[in-house]
Amino acid sequence: MTSKLMMATRLLARTALFAASLLTIPSAQAQQPGGIARTDLQRHDLSAPGREAVQVRVDIAPGKAFGQHTHPGEEIIYVLAGTLQYDVDGRPPATLKAGDVLFIPAGTIHAAKNVGNVTASELATYIVEKNKPLLTLVK
């Protein structure tokens, strides 16, 4: 086989593997009302029975808020961009910027608001009970 043919074959194989890997990631969810978009990135069972890890990217437009809610497990937040204010039940409000992190215990009521002038983004990692809604809004 010539080197050009081998390179083309490798490129085709890599492209096929990349395309196949995209099929295993849940598709991005549609833009939610109010300038908030949640994009599912991955979901995997854990070695702890009945638990799973879920990663979601959350983008919040300037001045918009995601209201009070809970999760059936822990949430670990890493702020990717912008400035977000988190109101976590039992704590004073915390303002975080890109590179900051936050831990929210299971079942804790919390909310987030973009207090900056650019779209803010976070990577939310959940360690939650399987077969329960990932998010429950609080009235």
Give structural notes.
It is a single chain. This protein has one helix at 3-23; strands at 36-45, 51-60, 65-70, 73-81, 83-88, 94-97, 101-104, 110-114, 120-129, 136-137. A 5-stranded antiparallel sheet has the order 1-2-9-4-7, with no helix packed on it. A hairpin with a 5-residue loop joins strand 1 (36-45) and strand 2. It is an alpha+beta fold and 139 residues long. The longest helix is centred in the N-terminal third of the chain and has 21 residues, at 3-23. The chain has one domain: Sandwich (Jelly Rolls), CATH 2.60.120.10. GO terms for molecular function: dioxygenase activity. Keywords: Dioxygenase, Oxidoreductase, Signal. InterPro entries: Cupin_2, RmlC-like_jellyroll, RmlC_Cupin_sf.
Radius of gyration: 19 Å
**SS summary, helix count:** 1
**What top-tier CATH class fits best?**
Mainly Beta
Number of domains: 1
Largest sheet: 5 strands, antiparallel
Tell me which oligomeric state these chains represent: single chain
Distance between the termini: 66 Å
Tell me the overall shape: globular
Extract low-pLDDT stretches. 15-31
How many E-type strands? 10
CATH architecture descriptor text: Sandwich
CATH topology: Jelly Rolls
Percent helix, as a range, is 10-25%
What proportion strand? over 45%
Instruction: For the largest sheet, list the strands in their spatial order.
Output: 1-2-9-4-7
What class do helices, strands and sheet pairing give?
A: alpha+beta
Query: Can you tell me the CATH superfamily?
Result: Jelly Rolls
> SSE order, as H and E?
HEEEEEEEEEE
**What is the residue-mean pLDDT, rounded to a whole number?**
85
InterPro entries: Cupin_2, RmlC-like_jellyroll, RmlC_Cupin_sf
GO molecular function, one term: dioxygenase activity
Pfam families: Cupin_2 (PF07883)
Protein name: Quercetin dioxygenase-like cupin family protein
